[in-house]
């Protein structure tokens, strides 16, 4: 099923307060990223925060990527 909406994912699928504490905005190689801290201390990329369209074409910043 595909849901087309202007709402954010968290407005449709709410997350718990504990999950929100694990999410951070970080700078990685000069790029602003929204990540979630995993159990082992690594970070999983959730969103690229950029106004440069080339940042979204970079395969190093695909959502779900594990950052070390």
UniProtKB/TrEMBL annotation:
InterPro entries in alphabetical order: YlzJ
Pfam families in the record: YlzJ (PF14035)
* Name of the molecule in the record: YlzJ-like family protein
Q: What is the lineage of its organism?
A: Bacteria, Bacillati, Bacillota, Bacilli, Bacillales
């Amino acid at each position: 099923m595909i849901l087309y909406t202007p709402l954010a994912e968290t407005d449709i699928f709410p997350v718990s307060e504990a999950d929100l504490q694990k999410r951070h905005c970080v700078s990685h190689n000069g790029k602003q990223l929204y990540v979630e801290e995993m159990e082992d201390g690594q970070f999983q990329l959730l969103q690229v925060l950029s106004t440069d369209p080339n940042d979204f074409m970079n395969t190093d910043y695909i959502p779900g990527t594990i950052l070390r």
